[in-house]
Amino acid sequence: MSAxxxxxxxxxxxxxxxxxxxxxxxxxxxxxLAFNLLGGGVFLLFGVVAKRGGxxxxxxxxxxxxxxxxxxxxxxxxxxxxxxxxxxGAVSIVEPTDRGAVEPTDRGAVEPTDRGAVEPxxxxxxxx
Length: 128
Known about the structure:
The protein has helices spanning 3-24, 28-53, 57-88. The protein is mainly alpha-helical. It has a domain at 3-88: Helix Hairpins (Orthogonal Bundle). It is elongated, with a radius of gyration of 25 Å.
């Protein structure tokens, strides 16, 4: 078994594990980690393809640029997850119990009138 084949199998395993984590996990931090695992597998796969193709510096530059972008995206995702935790108090993404049904709220709801226009909040409209 060659080293290239071994790295290719490891890359496929990382991609599969990352996809599984994205689909199966509800916790936001675990989804972020799974996305990083998926990205690591893709970067390793790029390295395998670059190794088989010869000495071309373009795939190496793409991997380095991708690592920098992935780090920045991870920092942004963690900051957003922390903000979500501060606002909602939730650390996971919860599926609604009844799929597709959204409970309307009464706050700020404006009912249309008979004419199809919306009444101003002060009453019946203009006296005139």
